[in-house]
Design a protein that fits this description.
seven-stranded mixed sheet; 6 helices; alpha/beta
Length: 192
């Protein structure tokens, strides 16, 4: 299998981003793209630097928004940017470029809970269900077309703590369901 994407850039931090990074690393042999990782917001408990070191993935820390925007603006080849646990807002000029496709992992169901801290709002509002959304990035915040969504019970205990099944369910979705459901979408996107 090959793809028209010459490069895949993963940007974000945290455990979910680490899983995505591992998945894209495993798949790069099948699809033949270069892979790199950008950490926009350094995180004390981040796992991504270690994953990059163990797997030989180029790692860059770019906490300055202007520097990150300038770096991404220089990309010339057909590139897929995978945004996960990432708070950088991609400039409209980048999003609109023909050679750039950006997808985002959002930790809530869209369009109900866009923006930052969505899981906190789900808990605050007492929702019984939550989930994740993978969507295309557009100039508007969390407004792009939905690729896949998966919902799960919020599973709040009476003391307000989360029992963890929602997190386990989300990781299961991340590993299996996303790949399964998006296989045809990915083939279409990768084919250009």
């Amino acid at each position: 299998m090959r793809t028209d994407f010459g490069k895949v850039v993963v940007i974000g931090y945290g455990k979910a981003t680490g899983e995505i990074l591992k998945y894209t690393d495993v798949r790069r042999t099948d699809y033949g793209y270069e892979l790199e990782f950008i950490e926009h917001e350094p995180h004390a408990l981040g796992v991504t630097r270690q994953i990059c070191e163990e797997r030989g993935i180029p790692f860059a820390s770019m906490p300055d928004k202007r520097a990150l925007g300038a770096y991404l603006a220089e990309i010339q080849e057909k590139t897929l940017i995978v945004s996960a646990s990432n708070n950088f807002l991609f400039p409209a000029a980048l999003v609109e470029r023909e050679n750039i496709t950006i997808i985002n992992f959002h930790n809530a169901l869209l369009p109900e809970y866009p923006g930052r801290n969505a899981p906190s709002w789900v808990i605050y509002r007492g929702e019984e269900r939550t989930g994740i959304t993978w969507h295309y990035v557009t100039a508007g915040v969390d407004e792009g077309g939905i690729i896949i969504q998966k919902s799960c019970d919020e599973s709040l205990r009476t003391d307000g703590s989360v029992d963890g099944s929602g997190v386990r369910g989300i990781l299961r979705v991340l590993r299996f369901r996303f790949a399964e459901k998006c296989r045809s979408e990915a083939a279409e996107v990768f084919a250009g």
